[in-house]
Amino acid sequence: MEKLSNKADERSRKIESIILQRLAEKTQTTIALELEMSESKISRLKNDDLPVIAKLITCLGLKVVPDDSLEVSQAELKSIKTLARKYLEIDEMI
Question: Tell me: the pLDDT tens digits for 3-17?
Answer without folding.
Answer: 678 898 999 999 999
